Amino acid sequence: MGEGMPNDALLMPLISSANIACGYHAGDERTMQQSIELALQHQVNIGAHPSFPDKENFGRTNMHFPPAEIRDMVKIQIELLANLALKNKCRLHHVKPHGALYNMASKDNILATAICEAILETDASLVVYAQSGSALIAMAKSMHLKTCSEVFADRSYEPDGSLTPRTAAHALLRDEEKVVAQVLQMVMQQTVMSGGQAIPVKAETICIHGDGEHAVAFAWRISEALKANHIYVPKG
Question: Fewer Cβ within 10 Å of end Cβ, the chain: N or C?
Answer without folding.
Answer: C
